[in-house]
Amino acid sequence: MIGMTSIEDRLRDALAARAETVRDEGPPPPLPGHPSGHAPRAGRGWRAPVAVAAAIVTVVAGVTLATRTPAEEGPAAHPTLPATPANEGQQPSGLPDNRLRPTLPPIPAGEISPAVEEVWPDAVHRVPDRAPGGQAFDVSVFVDEDTLVGRGMVKARPRTIWSYDLDSRTFTEIAPMTMPGVMNAALAYGEGTLAWSTFHEGAVEIWAVPLTGGTPRRVTTFEAVLIDDTFRGIRLDIAAGQVVWSQEKGGVHRAPLTGGKPETVPGSEMYELLEWPWARSTSEAPGRLLDLRTGEPGELGPEGMTCGVVWCVDAREAVRRDGTGRRELPGLPSLSVPFTMSVVLLDQRLDDGRATVALQELESGRTGLLGFAPTRAGDRAMPTLHVQDDLLWFRQGTETLIINYKGMNR
């Protein structure tokens, strides 16, 4: 779920979150000389996956507080990409060594993919990057195909929840955001309700408000799981009248939307929430699915690949969990996890020396161009790409370009 949010912004809030595990010293000061006033977007782990072409900020299930990286899915020993002016010194993808291409096969410049707006005209939208009052509008989630919800940011802190109507091109205020703590995550939506998490004084608080508006209320509070003394966020969803979430360790949990104490979903102790109703094993059979409604296991997926609910990827191919639909990817995946389970970002190298970042929709196999990577000194950098479960967005001047994954097959 677009002047650009920078890596420094995410590091600033990461340090703020870590500081809260020791003592509360208030909001962190801005970095000296830092030009951005936009809020960071985040998923698990405070490390930033950086594509050959662009910085990528990932948000899973809308409301996590860190950056999920392929390294969390892959082996401890990281492979390395072939050195180029564009990727030299960057973090590797984290995909298994025996599946990683030794080189990036060049694509004929004449066969470059059309722009995403040409490939998916019904899925690509442009909206103002500022909400009323000059607040930076950080995109969170489509609540229907014509209505977008996001957070209004002031000095990199959320202040207001706004909806934006794509037809009338108007903003409507839903609720203020005045709760304490660090909250640099997108909003989750379900059953007419918006929910999000904050990290405050060693605890996670989940808040909610009706889509129709009102005063946010605290749904539940629980102790934060710290990894290496760092809070890495939660993955949050709304279903069956409950908020459902998981932290990096400890299973899948739930609490009534009306408020109440957390409880662990039976049988989910060694799983993490993936996409309701599915959770993914974190232990004996990594990637095995569990249906949280029934307790029944799901497909495991091909060995050596990283899987979502439907699709699995490695450094060369994509294939459905059941082994069908196998196809070679026209580029190196920037992320080892297809977050919506139907799209993947690709780094591509052209035979004329240029590099691109493209988006592929795995069901159709169609690929759209997001932009060109800087490969030489003086080349213009791409904007930061904000990759979320249901959408991707980035800023272009005074507008935000948003790709709604659900509109790709219309």
List keywords for this structure.
410 residues, 31 strands, 38% strand, mainly beta, disordered N terminus, five-stranded mixed beta sheet
Task: Say how many strands there are.
Answer: 31
Rounded mean pLDDT score: 77
Broad shape: globular
Low-confidence stretches: 1-53, 60-102
CATH architecture: 7 Propeller
Counting DSSP H or I runs of 4 or more residues, the number of helices is 2
Describe the structure.
The structure is a single chain. The chain is mostly beta strands and 410 residues long. The chain has a single domain (7-407), classed as 7 Propeller (Methylamine Dehydrogenase, Chain H), CATH 2.130.10. Helix content is 4%, strand content 38%.
